[in-house]
Design a protein that fits this description.
- The structure is a homodimer of 344-residue chains.
- The first copy, chain A, is an alpha/beta fold.
- Chain A is built from twelve helices and 13 strands.
- In chain A, a hairpin with a 4-residue loop joins strand 5 and strand 6.
- In chain A, helix 3 packs across helix 12.
- Chain A is globular, with a radius of gyration of 20 Å.
- At the A-B interface, strand 10, helix 8 and helix 11 of A face strand 10, helix 8 and helix 11 of B.
Chain lengths: 344, 344
Amino acid sequence: MRPGMVVGVDLGGTKVLAAVVDDAGRVLAEAREATAADDGVAAVITRIANLVNLVIERAGGSREEISALTIGVPGSVSDAEGLVEMAPNLGWHNVALGRELERALGIKVFLDNDVRLAVLGEQAYGVGRGTHSMVGVYVGTGIGGGVVIGGELLRGGRGAAGEVGHMILKPNGPRCPCGQRGCAEALASRTAMERDVRKLIRKGKKSRVLKLISKQGRTRLTSSLIVRALKQKDPVMTKVMRRAQDYLGLLVANLVNALDPEVVVIGGGIAERMGEEFVAPIREAAGPLFFLQRHRENVRIVPTELKERAAPLGAALVARHRLAATSSGRSEISPLTLHPGGNG
Amino acid sequence: MRPGMVVGVDLGGTKVLAAVVDDAGRVLAEAREATAADDGVAAVITRIANLVNLVIERAGGSREEISALTIGVPGSVSDAEGLVEMAPNLGWHNVALGRELERALGIKVFLDNDVRLAVLGEQAYGVGRGTHSMVGVYVGTGIGGGVVIGGELLRGGRGAAGEVGHMILKPNGPRCPCGQRGCAEALASRTAMERDVRKLIRKGKKSRVLKLISKQGRTRLTSSLIVRALKQKDPVMTKVMRRAQDYLGLLVANLVNALDPEVVVIGGGIAERMGEEFVAPIREAAGPLFFLQRHRENVRIVPTELKERAAPLGAALVARHRLAATSSGRSEISPLTLHPGGNG
């Protein structure tokens, strides 16, 4: 390994992915580990640090050759303070992840939202290669997203740009975890689909979905169970999915009408598993809602190409951008401060 | 006048404004003229050229001291081709406005959408001074808008970014001139308000609005008539305005939730006349729909400060940006081509 490499980490609710990436976006080594958030904050941070050490070792290098690390978090962050403000899936609130990781590793650490990083990775190295503007819609437990303009992530005035899941598509619609009603997330996330499936079954509709869930020893509807139920042509799952896709089409159309991106990438667990089968009905639902004919002809609406690699790659890219911004003095980021006396 | 000045022009459905602007955004001279689009394309272009000559004269200069001119058009443009693709208010379709003006004036001409330019002007010199990200919502015959990120207008993959009026707020709602249903424009523009006022009156609601319109010798509901009816506490106008403001609040909330701008500026005829009285209920309607508490505390939602001067100032700024991009080779814009043998 030569000096100047960066590390991208994706901290998810169930697993952590880490990758050493060179300046062309090539992955030199990868590693993964269960998150096991139940073990507590300190245990998770130690686990991340160990994983980073492991992936650097796999790349045949040492920590001194790593210029910086960016970690994507499923929640809101304050990068300036190195703080995870709120990550509901981890049960984290105001966790000083940046400082702790810097202390443990002796590497400069940047924080960002995981989905935003995935959208950036997809723009730079996946379906968005060569485009100027792209929007991402990621469907999972919730709905996240991101906006990339001119190769740069839109972060917003309070770091909350790209939260397309909280655009309200149905005023007075179902309650969203955010407290509002009728957000895209409350209409078309996996959680919303599960709620709708259970409701239809309670109403007496025939479905094998609940059996599939318990047969797998699960309590919740996962992406893979959705795919299985659809393959078996379960009528309730089919109906609920169709409705979610219609709402996602409306969401995509609203984003396209307002922002006119070249590409809309659809990501998240269901999109990773189903690809075009998931996206085609979304595209069909969006098409008639574009206000310009040329949108219908020219906007590409496509499933993620990089899948779970998108976020670590985006994270690595942000590490590079931030370092460049720091060294050229263009940014608010404070100069590189290492903690070589750390215990990592 | 010293060399290096630029001219910003706002071509509206009823009037044309032109301003000579220096590099600090100071207006050295202004001039205005009726558009009178009924006279035909050639007459309007000659009128614009004469107005530009007049305003340069008023600034005490000559055409040779003008580096470039940008003209804002109420419609869609292809700047690369110097083409007004479609401007419904003018009845224009594929008009080579850029080439014709360059021929007439011997000045490099750039084209852009009028509302987008107004948002840029407002960001640079008005309510958005010093901000990184701003969104504009302009309520008039239709609803237009714009997004400014890092001091640059978002133009989009097909030059259609910022058309926030065609975000769909009510699926299967009233028909929009764009062909869709339930767009913000079909729910909250002046045209939509007039439709709703007439509908309520047909249903037997008491209102003086129609009398006000005919007393003024008008056939359509203008911004000034709306203001007058509201001052007289006309119950139908009050109710219709309140509903429009609720929809505008939903539109603003969706834009804020997705893009997290520092400022949302509300512009257009009604906002220019009513200011805070128009905006306060929009702000109130948006507040409970923000998914982040800090949006509620920190996003500024404010009426236009620059009013009709915003578009010429934004136009002048675009002229400077484009020239800079051309000279540094960063842009797709072809080198300066003048037509000094023109008849202007």
